[in-house]
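Supplementary Methods S3. Complex input for the oxa(dethia)-CoA-bound model.
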Amino acid sequence: MYARITGTGSYLPPRVVTNADLEKIVDTSDEWIRTRSGIERRHHVDPGETTSTMCVKAARQAIEMAGIEASDIDFVVVGTCTPDQVFPNVGTMVQAELGIINTPALSVEAACSGFVYALSIADKYIRLGEAKCALVIGADALSKLLNWSDRSTCVLFGDGAGAVILRASEEPGILTTVISADGRYRDLLQCQYGPSRGYDALIAGQAVGVEMKGAEVFKVAVNTLSSLVDVTLEKAGVDRAAVDWLVPHQANLRIIQAAAKKLGLPMEQVVVTVQDHGNTSSASIPLALDRAVRDGRIQKGQMLLLEAFGGGFTWGSALLRF
Ligand code: UT7
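Predicted complex, serialized as structure tokens:
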């Protein structure tokens, strides 16, 4: 039994923030942001929009493409590190809004690897026969956690949500997933305030938001993603020549190019959205996937490699037949 993606969906908040807009807020330039990261614009939520409201919109599109009813869904999992509230979890909010009842509903916190972690969990439930139709979402509103006086981070992140429907199938779908982490790297990329640590500073508005030692993260990301490609293909027993599309986490165009080179894939076979979305954390892979499915690049039966890297550090991949 496999878990197959039968529908994809996405949502981006309407408010577009360009590099030129950011030049008015911090000491930066369009040229610096483009050459160092590849980012040209990103979307930010407006007041009233939250992670769960974005999730619901992405989920509705995925449900429609899959040709199912929300009531067919028997497992809901959301990868996010920017939940609406401490609890209830975002999965339950999505579940309630879509009218799904009496199913597991959870959220998984793995920073930018959240979607791949969520996909890996849903895949296991389907393979074990404990779920038949899962809604898997990656969503984040990192604009809410940015430090607007830190030019080295505030220009990089955007908001959005992407969703997939995974159905039990005898036809191959997800061939393998790999998830892993190394918590020793906590200080290189973090938002160090939460309900059980520094909460007073957070509610007093003194918290500093996302902090990143960019150049150090860059090096570990490139090395980790490079070995992740080998580990994933080896685990699945698939040759790298069989991969039709790389759908990577969209943090930095240079990191994406390094991963493509490692795979021996031309950039024409890599889905790149970082220029339009920035780094949307958990949402970046499902947003990129949905774009390439809807514009017809990704076709049924093709082999896709998804790979992510984020704070923790966490990382993960999925090799699948679409
Ligand atoms: O999604 C989770 C994983 N995240 C990542 O994978 C992100 C990994 N890191 C990166 O993508 C890159 O390291 C960045 C895009 C964040 C930065 O690029 P970089 O080439 O590593 O630059 P840097 O951090 O080494 O900074 C170079 C210079 C510094 O100036 P000096 O010290 O050389 O004079 C910074 O102060 O660029 C300066 N700088 C800026 N200048 C204009 C930093 N941010 C900006 C800015 N505008 N926004």
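The chain has a mean pLDDT of 97. The pocket of oxa(dethia)-CoA is lined by residues 28, 32-33, 36-37, 112, 151-152, 155-156, 214-215, 217-218, 221, 251-252, 255, 279, 309-310 (CB under 6 Å).
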